[in-house]
């Protein structure tokens, strides 16, 4: 039973990033830009293109979710040696606009998510890719302050480099 539940965990993490990403994480992706995001769910350590960044909200959400699921299914957490996620993100078509004194921002986000949970017995992996247009203005302003008037566009070469990985 434990193996089936752990594999389901690995699958669910990727699915959640694609289908219902955290608004604060979308704002962080927009702030840091396209690239490879590496998350250690157990420690909360996060990186963007190998450089350290502030912890993404997803780490806290998944830590809590894992804890409650372990309790619910009677699984001992001690054998979990690693719980990581790697998300290749491409941000395109960032749109910042004003209407009636309010600022709004959205973008097209492409995600390619790989998930790994390693125990003392086995490694469970999950993978999912998808893309959607999401708004992130409120979350961005809470984390980083005022939205920029003009969004810095990444070069097509950078976007293609992330797509090929």
Protein model, in words:
The structure is a single chain. The chain has five helices and six strands. It is of the alpha+beta class. Strands 3-2-1-4-5-6 form a six-stranded antiparallel sheet, sandwiched between helices.
Show unreliable segments.
none
Assign an overall shape. Answer: elongated
The strand order across the widest sheet is: 3-2-1-4-5-6
> Can you count the helices?
5
The secondary-structure class comes to alpha+beta
Overall average pLDDT: 88
Radius of gyration: 17 Å
Question: DSSP strand (E) fraction?
Answer: 35-45%
SSE order: HHEEEHEEEHH
Biggest beta-sheet profile: 6 strands, antiparallel
N-to-C CA distance = 34 Å
Percent range of helical residues = 25-40%
How many discrete structural domains?
Answer: 1
Strand tally is: 6
What is the fold's blueprint, element by element?
Blueprint: H1 2-19, H2 23-32, E1 35-40, E2 46-48, E3 51-53, H3 57-73, E4 82-99, E5 102-118, E6 123-135, H4 137-144, H5 156-163
Antiparallel strand pairs: 1-2, 1-4, 2-3, 4-5, 5-6
Key attributes of the depicted protein:
6 strands, six-stranded antiparallel sheet, 5 helices, 165 residues
């Amino acid at each position: 039973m434990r193996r089936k539940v752990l594999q389901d965990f690995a699958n669910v993490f990727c699915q959640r990033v694609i289908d219902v990403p955290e608004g604060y994480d979308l704002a962080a992706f927009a702030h840091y830009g396209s690239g490879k995001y590496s998350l250690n769910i157990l420690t909360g350590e996060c990186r963007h293109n190998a450089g350290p960044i502030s912890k993404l909200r997803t780490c806290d959400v998944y830590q809590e979710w894992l804890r409650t699921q372990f309790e619910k299914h009677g699984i001992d957490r001690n054998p979990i040696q690693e719980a990581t996620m790697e998300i290749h993100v491409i941000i395109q078509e960032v749109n910042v606009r004003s209407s009636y004194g309010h600022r709004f921002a959205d973008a097209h986000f492409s995600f390619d998510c790989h998930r790994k949970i390693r125990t003392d017995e086995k490694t469970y992996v999950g993978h999912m890719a998808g893309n959607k247009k999401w708004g992130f203005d409120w979350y961005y302003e809470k984390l980083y302050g005022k939205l920029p008037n003009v969004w810095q566009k990444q070069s097509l070469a950078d976007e293609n480099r992330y797509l090929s990985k």
